[in-house]
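Record 1 of the preview.
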Amino acid sequence: GIDYTHATFGGAGTIGAIVAVNSFGSVLVPGSEAYWASPFELNGEFGGQAIPAGASPGEDWGAAKLNPGAGQNTTIACLATDVSLTPAQAQRIAVMAQGGLARAIRPSHTPFDGDTVFVMSTGRIPLPEPAALSLSRLGSLAADTLARAIARGVHEARKPG
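->
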């Protein structure tokens, strides 16, 4: 599935994620229609199914591809923001956004995946001071936004019709 979603940052900036999902791991909690990313869902955007009580990532990978072929699995994402970032700051956001993959896909970052996250900025608004704290907030929001985009993309691809 492919999807785009976004969130606002500090009342001024925006960060968005677009992602193509073809992961080795599963986005669904085994034995349910709930997405691993459901704690980050807004307004039922991917079905509104809560993770069942007692569900654990553990060793049950549910719909993971248990016979993957080389080079056949990857999740590629691009996050874009209007907050001005230096190259080093953009790299930090990409590192932090990788957490969104782990929030939405079980298992993630496997030897079968070619996961990549890119970050770009229009530089429209300055990064608020203190910069390190704002960068931390933006990176955390990037990970949540990416987790949502992953679940939304798969949810939309699974819809009948």
